[in-house]
Amino acid sequence: FSFSSTGFYYVRFDVDHTVTVATNTFGIIEIYLTDDNSTYTSAAFAYFGGQSDYDQGVGGISTIIDVTNTTNDKVKFKFTEDTGTARINGSSTVNKSYVTFMKLGET
Prior knowledge:
Elements: E1 7-19, E2 25-34, E3 41-50, E4 55-67, E5 74-83, E6 86-89, E7 98-105
Antiparallel strand pairs: 1-4, 1-6, 1-7, 2-3, 2-5
């Protein structure tokens, strides 16, 4: 994601997740940042999972970003299925998994 203007931004990544097999299954969600449009580092992460068939839940992670250069400062989001059958869910009619950007003020 590229920012249209500099400033401080609140960024949140919310997911609706499902685990379909009871084998200590889990996944990881992360927010990555770069200030050189090349090298990304993790700014926030969380594990989710379950131990029963069809465990389901919601969760989110967030960070605050100081965007000083709209060309080089970027953010990306990642989901990793670490073990088993962890999934994040989507929908074409309601927000199930989504990101939120809110500009807090000027740098």
